[in-house]
Amino acid sequence: MKAKKLRLTLSVLLLTVLFFSGCENVKKVLEKIKPGKKEGEKPVPMFAVNTTTAAKGQIQDYIALAGDIVAGSTVDVYSEAAGKVADLFVAVGQRVDRGQRVAAVDPSRPGMDFNMSVAVAPISGTIIALPAQVGMTVSQAVPLARISGGTGLEIKLYVAERFISKMAMNLPCVVTLAAWPGEVFQGSISEVAPTVEPTSRTMEVRVTVRNPGNKLKTGMFAKVRIITESKSNIVKIPAQAMLSRFGEQYVYVVEKDPADPKFNIVRKRIVRPGILIDGILEIQDGLAPDEEIVTRGQTLLEDGVRVNIIERTAPLQN
């Protein structure tokens, strides 16, 4: 009886050893037939990146300022005699012709009666201000009304001293206003002051602005971009695509892997940057339009590594 139990125990142990040794052999066989993996082969690293395409277009350097809209040319109306304003014949915003009555001033004194002194418009235009009021005592040096002589409007700006060298007549300007959101008005520099204000260290500049539809009014607040430099047909990219290290400026350009065209690799490309405006960078040399470049994830890249393009963003607008 004891001999039977011993033989049974030995048989179970033998079967167990054979079973596990068989499993190990099976594992070895499966590992050998796994597709795509060779003995001693190391996995190729791949980096996730975002890309875009270098664009060809225009870039503009500008100075952003703000100022008030004023009448382009104004003329004040004065009385020929001192006295009290007896009557006003016009209102603000009214169109007047040359020689039209504007105000009447009574120069009479106690015990002395004089004829009314009538002030007339010296030019044709629009009444933009009436400093005098009925009953006010005025002299010949006090203006009764202010007339804008034309339809043109100007924006009065004050330029900081460090930008004076960039100011010149007829520089183009782009004007926007909170009163007309989304609309852009065009203008140009029409006047540059010959001196600098010593207290504020600024120079007055006037911009003539076109006013289609008479949407602009004197007194409005305007934001102005004075275009100091403009370049056309240049290569431009998002500024974050360029890296600067060890005195080099470069980008990573995406190419097909010559060893396996199913994959993409990157090549380090030395570039020469130009104007940088609002996150848009001009590339003067080293990059051609329509080349695909890395815009995100490039800090860990090296020349020739494989990349997985997660997102392609649209190129910059012209």
Q: What is the compact description of this entry?
A:
By secondary structure, this protein is mainly β.
Radius of gyration: 40 Å
- Strand composition percent: over 45%
Count of helical stretches:
1
Q: Based on DSSP secondary structure assignment, what is the total number of beta strands?
A: 22
CATH topology group of the largest domain: conserved putative lor/sdh protein from methanococcus maripaludis s2 fold
Strand order of the largest sheet: 16-17-18-22-1-21
Helix-strand makeup class: mainly beta
- Mean of pLDDT: 86
The number of distinct structural domains comes to: 3
Keywords:
OB fold (Dihydrolipoamide Acetyltransferase, E2P), mainly beta, 318 residues, six-stranded antiparallel β-barrel, six-stranded mixed β-sheet, 3 domains, conserved putative lor/sdh protein from methanococcus maripaludis s2 fold, 10% helix, Elongation Factor Tu (Ef-tu), domain 3
